[in-house]
Design a protein that fits this description.
five-stranded mixed sheet; binds N-(1,3-benzodioxol-5-yl)-2-(piperidin-1-yl)acetamide; 26 strands; mainly beta; six-stranded mixed β-barrel; 6 helices; about 325 residues; about 45% strand
Length: about 325
């Protein structure tokens, strides 16, 4: 069957939380198309780390089974991480159900996870080759579910300051304008990766980024792009500065922000709304704002995170490794 769950943004669209039922216990988790581990806050964690969170209790689940000798350890691009033991249980996401899903029980989590009490773990939706479980790597929820889904797809419908949805096994065409533009994905690195070699700032000319590559990453808040794109973009924003103390580009909150169009696999130019690139104030007075578009390393892999998803409905096809995109309805 299919599955559909709400995707509720935290304050400031920092991340999106969706309800996941594990062994009959419903827990709000962060769906991350940039990683491939399903790990959860749980009663094995130190009490100080559990505080404020929903903690899965393997002892009260009648279907949980420990995976003897298995462990996981994951670290993310922002320096956060988690590690612990592994079991299997029945995982139900909005009706889409997997009976023997690897459920990773964190026994250690980094401070940013402890502090974010709205998020109680991650559901990794990248390719299973990135799963960190040892000695035997395990599959993602989507990989396990795909054979039972009417179509081998999940979709992300993330909104600015509004409730959206993740859907498994169905493409809801009422959620986007026109038709989806499909692009082949290169899964070699385990990401939903595609070429992105052109961009345009506002009504300006299309510019080239030879060899540009990007990933579609629902777990990353911002849009991390090549410095050439970031410089071209903020050269059009009065008062934009690279603010070392804050750790990225800031500009006056009153600035008029142009749209940014980025190439998706040579088939489609995805327009990211300028308003969504005004991410958040950095000062109490709300005078200076932090950009939703920030620079990665030159020539590095670009990370199209939630800033892009707020403008684009995205379908992830695991049957033929492709991504479909269209503006939200
Ligand atoms: O770490 C992440 C996403 N991560 C997903 C799991 C929760 C914590 C955040 N994204 C990321 C990826 C690359 C980066 C980066 C951040 O900062 C600099 O480079």
């Amino acid at each position: 069957g299919t599955g559909v769950v709400t995707a509720t943004p935290e304050q400031g669209d920092v991340e999106y939380l969706s309800p996941v039922t594990i062994g009959g216990q419903t827990i709000n988790m962060d769906f991350d198309s940039g990683s491939s581990d399903l790990w959860v806050f749980n009663t094995e964690l130190a009490a100080g780390s559990q505080a404020g969170h929903s903690n899965f209790n393997p002892e009260t689940s009648t279907t949980f089974q420990l995976l003897q000798g298995a462990s996981f350890e994951i670290s993310y691009g922002d320096g956060s991480g988690a590690a612990g033991n592994v079991g299997t249980d029945t995982v139900n996401i909005g009706g889409a159900t997997v009976t023997n899903q690897a459920v990773e029980l964190a026994t250690a989590v980094s401070s940013s996870f402890v502090q974010d009490t709205q998020s109680n773990g991650l559901v990794g939706l990248a390719f299973s080759k990135l799963n960190t479980i040892k000695p035997v790597q395990q599959k993602t929820f989507f990989d396990n579910a795909i054979a039972t889904l009417p179509i081998p797809v999940f979709t992300a419908d993330l909104r600015h300051a509004a409730v959206g949805a993740y859907e498994f096994g169905n493409i809801d065409s009422t959620k986007f304008n026109g038709s989806l533009s499909w692009t082949d994905v290169n899964a070699t690195s385990g990401f939903w990766q595609f070429s992105s070699q052109q961009f345009a700032v506002g009504t300006g000319p299309t510019m080239n980024l030879a060899g540009g590559q990007a990933i579609a990453d629902t777990g990353t808040t911002l849009m991390i792009a090549d410095p050439s794109i970031v410089n071209a973009y903020y050269s059009q924003v009065q008062g934009a500065v690279n603010n070392e103390t804050v750790g990225g580009v800031t500009f006056p909150c009153a600035a008029q922000l142009p749209d940014l169009a980025v190439d998706i696999g040579g088939n489609y130019m995805a327009t990211v709304r300028g308003d969504d690139i005004n991410f958040s104030p950095v000062d109490a007075a709300g005078t200076t704002c932090f950009g939703g578009l920030q620079a990665g390393t030159a020539g590095g892999l670009q990370i199209y995170g939630d800033i892009m998803f707020k403008s684009q409905f995205v379908a992830f096809n695991g049957g033929n490794n492709s991504i479909g995109m269209a503006p939200h309805q």
